[in-house]
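Table S5 (text form). Sequence records supplied for joint modeling of the two-component complex.
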Amino acid sequence: MGNSGLLITPVAELSEDRTLYVGYSYFGAEQRQFVPRSSSGLESSASRTIFANLTFLPFLEMTLRVAKPYDAGQSLGIGDRSIFMKIRLLKEKGLRPGLSLGLHDVLSSFGAYFQTNYLVASKSFSLSGDWSVHSSLGYGMKFKNTNEGYLLGLFGNTSLRWKQLQLVMEYDADQFNTGIKCSLFDRLFVNIGALNMKDFSAGGSFRMNL
Amino acid sequence: MKPTILYFLLLWPLLLLTKSYGQSPQTAVLQNIEEALVDLGLKNIGLSTNQKQLVLTYENTRYRFEAQALSDLLDKVGPAACTHFEELVLIGQKQGIEVFHLVIELEDCQAFSGQEGAKKAWIGGAEISYRERPKATTKPKALKEKGFFRAELVLEPQLRLAFGGEPEIVAHQLNLLPRLDVHLWKGALFQLQYILPLSNELQIPEETFVRPGRISFHQVAKLPGQVYSRLSLGYFSQYRYGGELELGRFFFNGQLFIHASIARTGYAAYPIRLKVEEPKAGWEFSDISSWQYRLGVAYWLNAWDLSIRLEHNRVPLGLSRNQIIVERYFNETKIGFFAYRADNRENYGVTLSIPIPPTKYFKHKRLQLRPSRTIEYRYHATQFFATDFDTGHDLERFFDKLNPEFMRRQLSRLTN
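The corresponding structure-token record, covering 626 residues in total, follows.
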């Protein structure tokens, strides 16, 4: 989705301060909730999202994203533009989990396809060697009566990490998703997922330190 | 021939040859330091000393980034100054006006011993300030490489994008804005800008041909008590002409800046496009009859190089606008967010300022050709624009990237 997280669901952790990710995500046609729709009816199109995610302050992450169905042509212009914000309220420390507040697409009024406001808590556990488990639990809701939204309700995720590889499983308040994430040369990040355990999704991003 | 005359004639060439050896060691050091500053391409160079303290004043016109100029300067003069003086005071100027000073102890010359981290620690002890120069310092007098009555031809790219239109989903306008900056005397700047459209997909007929941009004169002056003033006269952006007076004051060594400006302007445009097929050249203008004002507060958060600006102003269309701009400096790159509300409507978006290579410009005496230091881009999320005019110069721009704490941290970063 562009913000720091697994496939769809966010985590409480933020990237290191001054980190910029520029990336791309693909969602298959079956995943209608991630397709910004217009009155021209594009519910059956696959969609793509281009994003830039910046840890603007050590406790604030900003994501600018443009999402568009592949079949939209000019009917959605460049696509649906939205801003996601994530504010870290508590840093994970000892037994205490990290806690963050997310505000997605809050500035849009009509056509806020990706609106949600959520709280998410995350905790990581070290296993033996390079293995670790990271789990998050959150709850999202809408404050505005907009036509769309996602992550509305209870969501959660867990990932099993080994070196640069992650095996992920999540529930996005609507469906279960699974996938694999990996990083290459500590700069390039790639993910492949099965949304609703069957629909293809993929994405990649490049990391820079400002 | 008298013996004294003969004696003089024989000895004179010898005296000339040994002149430099006859100088006191400190004078020779000062001369070397002055030469080093000239070699760096700095302007308005002045030196003075009161035995233990060395005072240098300079203006950077060669480096894109002021902190880089300061870093290179310390590298050049540090080792020599270290061996002969106990304290170094550097006074940085802008347009001939002293704007900041750096005080650094020279007692311990370990900084240049090559020991890892020694120089960084030395730089870390520097005190940089917007405040008045320390009382003990003497004022350097005769300035070398004077920076007045010189010109810069600045090539500035301008990019505008419009999203979601037809027939182009992303329509762009790319202009080149060549600008002649003539530095006249202390604080005085004359600017003449032209707008050369390179590529234009925006459906604005008036912007498809070469036309004058801003033509303006600015005078900045430093008043007592860290108060600065600016007077701008001329033809500005947004088709306004007239005059603007701005006053600003720093508090807490640059952490807080409060400024206010008042302007009296009228409409002017060249050339205009009437409701006919061909554009008609010639100036069209109204009386100078409209008042605008701006009140602003800028707060600088040292920990994150973050600037938070609140502004209330009356823009040319008569709208009262309240604006917040939050910008963070990632070294020379600036990324920020803005939001404003005027006439019960709002707009918000993103601001970007990205440095343009090179980091160092050619040395020059009278005319310098260079690209603009940065390219600016502002993304507006909605179609509501309550845009203020731009004179081309203001106090916030005058002090951009000169915040003392920012400079100190950048110096530390740039020091190996």
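Note: Chain B touches chain A at residues 163-167, 169-170, 304, 306, 328, 330-331, 333, 335, 337, 348, 350, 381 (CB under 8 Å).
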